[in-house]
Every structure is written in C-alpha cells, then in structure tokens.
Amino acid sequence: MRVLAASEFYASELTERSFNKAVLRLNHNILRLCFTQAVIGVAGINPRQTIINLLMLLSSPDLGSV
C-alpha cells in the first residue's frame, strides 16, 4: 500500500475519485493500526466509520505498547 501524504487531501486538482481513494487508504491505515496495536477487537471495528475508528484508536491506553 502506498504511503498517504496529507497534501493529497488539499490538492487543487483533487477529483472526487482521487479523494475517495485517499480516504480509502487513510481508513485502511487506521484499521491496520487498530489491529496491529491490539487496540480494538474485531467486533469493535466498523470499516466504514473512519472517524470513530480513529477516535477509538487514539483514546486507547494500550496504543504504542505492542
């Protein structure tokens, strides 16, 4: 998976398709962090709720301990 740069979200020639692909990559990276850091169990993750998954990841006391 390609590294996601923040500039991809505010490029002047950003199309809807490009934006959707960037959000998909961002969500994939968040989900991968959730699983690899053992922050959220499989039952607690909703792949379509990027912000909720990110908030759960950031509020976990176990983040960074794995």
Structure characteristics:
single chain, 66 residues, 0% strand, mainly alpha, elongated
Short description:
It contains two helices and no strands.
Shape: elongated
Which sheet architecture does the biggest sheet show? none
Portion in strands: under 5%
Distance between the termini: 22 Å
Task: Using the CA coordinates, give the radius of gyration.
Answer: 13 Å
- The tally of structural domains comes to 1
Number of helices: 2
Order of helices and strands: HH
Structural class: mainly alpha
Question: What's the topology here?
Answer:
Elements: H1 16-36, H2 50-58
What does this structure look like?
With 66 residues, the chain is mainly alpha-helical. The chain has one domain. The chain has 2 helices and no strands. Helix 1 packs parallel to helix 2. The protein is elongated and about 40 Å long. The two termini are 22 Å apart. The mean pLDDT is 77.
